[in-house]
Design a protein that fits this description.
heterodimer; A: alpha+beta; 5-stranded antiparallel sheet; 5 strands; disordered C terminus; B: Transcription Regulator spoIIAA; 40% helix; 32% strand
């Protein structure tokens, strides 16, 4: 399989499902276990939701860039939108008692719960989210020994 | 992949059997419409049977919260039944498990309504 792959996707709901499916496939092919694949695909789904909805606002002229890379120690997934850049200071803690019954605001929290590293870099031309899952040992699931 | 809902009545309680995925888009909207429809018809005792829900995202979690608060605000009560491990774990890490009234036995859940 390719160790680096990138997709340019429309700002649609279909992109959210497609990003999740691509993540499932990539992580499975890398040999991650079922639970980790689920975590990775869900983190990517949440990142894609943020990019499509909150970043690009479904704008047809704005794209979502989704990239997967297998480095020696990590699976690195990058999701980039072309919005105005998320204001990190305005993201509430979804576990705070006053926020528990809010109907939104859990996406970044779930990404951080499921991935080993989550880096969010907002700028005036968009937000880049980097999701990193460490590969346990030198060969995840023993399937990558030949690579 | 998509979500399916069907509603049945047991001793005055509406049990909504959910299967598939509760995610942003169709799944969330279906759940919202179903709960609102029940409430508009005067049904105040609702159980969401999530035994066949194999996937839920943050939008789906938000929809469960919305169903819970909307029902409560209208003087009703909503319980969750038969959580799968995935949904159970998600509600745990989001600290919502103790907010919802979660049951694992249908008959007991029906009886538990005031």
């Amino acid at each position: 399989m390719e160790l680096q792959v990138s997709y340019t996707l429309d700002s649609t709901l279909e992109t959210v499902d497609s990003a999740e499916q691509k993540a499932t496939r990539f992580a499975t092919d890398l040999g991650f276990g079922e639970d980790e694949v689920m975590q990775i695909s869900m983190a990517v789904r949440e990142g894609a939701v943020n990019a499509v909805l909150h970043g690009n606002g479904y704008a047809p002229d704005k794209k979502v860039i989704l990239a997967f890379e297998r480095t020696p120690n990590d699976l690195v997934i990058t999701i980039r939108d072309q919005g105005r850049g998320i204001d990190l200071s305005r993201i509430p803690n979804p576990l705070a008692p006053e926020n528990l019954l809010k109907t939104s605001g859990r996406g970044i929290f779930l990404m951080r719960s499921f991935m080993d590293v989550v880096e969010i870099r907002p700028s005036s031309t968009g937000t880049e989210v980097k999701l990193i899952k460490h590969v346990r040992g030198s060969s995840p699931g023993g399937k990558e020994a030949s690579q | 992949m998509s979500m399916k809902l069907s509603t049945r009545q047991v001793d005055g309680v509406a049990i909504v059997d959910c299967s598939g995925r509760i995610t942003l888009g169709e799944g969330s909207v279906m759940l919202r419409d179903t709960v609102r429809d029940l409430l508009s018809k005067g049904t105040k005792k609702i159980i969401l049977n999530l035994g066949d829900v194999n996937y839920i995202d943050s939008s789906g979690i938000g929809e469960l919260v919305s169903a819970f608060t909307t029902t409560k605000n209208q003087g009703g009560e909503l319980k969750l039944l038969h959580l799968t491990k995935k949904v159970h774990d998600l509600l745990q890490i989001t600290k919502l498990y103790t907010v919802f009234d979660v049951k694992d036995d249908e008959a007991a859940a029906v009886k538990a309504f005031k």
